Amino acid sequence: MTGKAVLPMDSYRLAQYSVQVPCFICEGGNSFDAEVCRHCQAPMALAHQANLRKTPPQLVATIGSADAGKTVYLGMLTDMLSRGHQELQLLARGAFSVSLQQLTVSALANCEFPGKTPNEPDRWNWIHCQVRSPRKRDPAELIMPDLSGEAILHEIDHPHTYPVIRAFLTKCAGVLVLIDAARLMEGGKDQDFFAMKMMSYLSELEDDPKNGWCARPISLIFTKADQCEVCFDDPSEFGRKHAPGLWQHCQQRFKRSRFFASGVAGACGYQNELGGVRQVPLRVEPRGIIQPFTWLVEQIGQ
Amino acid sequence: MNSRLRIAGTLFFALVIVATAVMAVLVSGHWLVLATAGPPLLAILYLGLVRGRRASATRSSPAPCSAPRQRSPKPTGPERRVYDVNDPAYLAQQMLEQGRHSLLLRPQIAANVKPEQLQTAMQCLDETMGIVPEGGVLLQSWRCLMQHDESHGQRERLVHVEPLYLDRYPVTNEQYHKFVESGGYENMSLWDPSIWPAVLDFVDRSGHPGPRYWQEGRYPAGLEDHPVVGVSWYEAAAFARWVGKRLPSDPEWVKAGCWPVLTQGTRPMQRRHPWGDTMDRERAHLWGSGSEGTVSVFELPEGVSVGGIYHLVGNVWEWTSSNYGAWDPAQHKLETAAPMKSIRGGAFDTYFDTQAMCQFQSGENPINRKHNIGFRCALSMCDVVATDLDGMDGEEEALVGCAVGAEEEVS
């Protein structure tokens, strides 16, 4: 049995649907009410917010292997800059831009590391923010996603697996490359190889000598340097000794690159759980978090 | 293999003692002192005399007490006199200048110290150390505090603490420099035998013995009143031994900060921070307080504890004598890659308020020399002679140790 009903025809809705809204990352067309891009799964809120600004936001990527500390680094960076104690100040745009900060700080305050970033792009945390510097009159608008390390590795090994990563890195104005210093110090070469892969991938994406990656700024950050204090003394020398492949790559191909060292946990312990062993920070004392970002923002502005 | 190492270590130690003793005799002719230097303590005192003489040759007007400058007493009390280098009183004077007054106040030594020097030592003790009274303290799991967990029994334990003195300030660069200058890094009797092979590695930026961030055996200019950092747990323990003190244990440190008040039949009332229950970043030097490094120990007097102890929270983490987790009442304890020592109090770069509470405990490998870890010393009350200074005429010293100490001595 069916009933009859009268439904008003919202013709203006049809009109809205007929106009495609381009994704800010991959520029693929989407309907006006899409939450994430149907092509790359980037949040469409970025596109809507960018349309409201006179100058389009610039993209900054944070890449590194899984467990290199990308989430912790980005979360701490945004929290430190948004507290207003630093020269650089950060203001989030949109509620979604605060999620990463909240996730990271809540975990660290309880002496835990935030959970692993899922591989699905629609579950990544994105930050759209305004960065103010006393040295510049106009604030910078930046978009920084918390990419999954495993997704980056997949994309590098099998290009086009994650269109969002490819599209984002192509449009990026600068990149923060995170390398696990503790693993390098232990003698493992995986971090060196992974970083070399990332740098090679970047140079292949855009090889134009004027606008390609060889001319864009790259901050190379040794994370977890609190576990190898010598890294703080001279990060470049540490890179030359422990990541010779990466160091050579940067010397030859990337003229606007610089090494930094950072650490968030002063020391770490382990907790036995049903699922295995979980690493926990024994205290939180961020070090070297802001300098790489400040340098990158200054370089982007030049 | 172990026994060989032990024998070699013992022989090495004996050689060092004999060689330095022979040199000391050749230099000063102190036969009498050496004859009675059976106990290692006296031998160390003698070595202190020889080194102290060298050091004093470069000084023009030594102060009677080497407490931190802001609190150091002016030359009060007895008139300054010129001591003969062979006079045992000279040794005591040197110790006062080096800030080692606690040694003079030991019941075993005080009887041989001149009354005016004993009075000065007592004055220094009062001015540089606060009292932590005897009593119980609740050691709590800080997670329990934050999560307002009501299962107190599982997350806390009541520990009894004997009365003690605790340094009012963390050990400063200037104080530590006296230790370095007097050859503390060469005096192996001050160091744990297990760490002897590593002592040679405890050098500053220029390769001289000293804290990690010093240069040419000197602290950075202008940082004399800042807490010494870049010292391992072993260096802190060696310094404490040199000044006749020790590192505080976890319960002692927490008791000094929390200042528990025990009312009959109830749990002790304790503070979260030395100044009260509410975090106030204006009272402690933590992340975001302005300066990115350490500050003078005399800054932020607002953060003082009830017992008159400064900088318990903030500025630098402080080494304690306890192992990490030893006193943790939590059931699910953490494991660490290497055995750690407990550190307390938070530092200038401590980010979260929750980690700058008296109950919060962190750990660090005892051999690590971090930029934000310093220490302060403690002294059991039973290690201090009880004197009636007002009525003292030189001979009347009541050597009253605490009951436990006395019992131990008798037994």
Radius of gyration of chain B from the CA trace?
Answer: 22 Å
How do the helices and strands follow one another from N- to C-terminus of chain B? HHHHHHHEEHHEEHHHHEEEEEH
Helix content of chain B: 25-40%
- Helix % of chain A is 25-40%
| Principal-axis shape of chain A | globular
Average pLDDT confidence of chain B is 78
Strand segment tally of chain A: 13
Task: Give me the secondary-structure category of chain A.
Answer: alpha/beta
Distance between the termini of chain B: 35 Å
Summarize the structure.
The complex is a heterodimer of chains A (302) and B (411). Helices cover 37% and strands 22% of the residues of chain A. With 302 residues, chain A is of the alpha/beta class.
Notable characteristics:
heterodimer, A: 302 residues, alpha/beta, seven-stranded mixed β-sheet, 12 helices, 13 strands, 37% helix, globular, B: 411 residues, alpha+beta, 14 helices
Task: Please provide a written account of the structure.
The complex is a heterodimer of chains A (about 300) and B (about 400). In chain A, a hairpin with a 6-residue loop joins strand 1 (about 20) and strand 2 (about 30). Chain A has about 300 residues and is an alpha/beta fold. In chain A, helix 3 packs across helix 4 and helix 10 (about 235-240) crosses helix 11. Chain A has helices spanning about 10-20, 45-50, 70-80, 100-110, 150-155, 165-170, 180-185, 190-205, 230-235, 235-240, 245-255, 290-300, and strands at about 20, 30, 60-65, 90, 125-130, 140-145, 175-180, 220-225, 255-260, 265, 270-275, 275-280, 285. The N and C termini of chain A lie far apart (about 70 Å). The model of chain A has no long low-confidence stretch (mean pLDDT about 90). The longest helix of chain A has 16 residues, at about 190-205. A 7-stranded mixed β-sheet of chain A has the order 4-5-6-3-7-8-9, sandwiched between helices. Chain B is an alpha+beta fold. Chain B is about 30% helix and about 10% strand. Chains A and B meet through strand 11 and strand 13 of A and strand 7 of B.
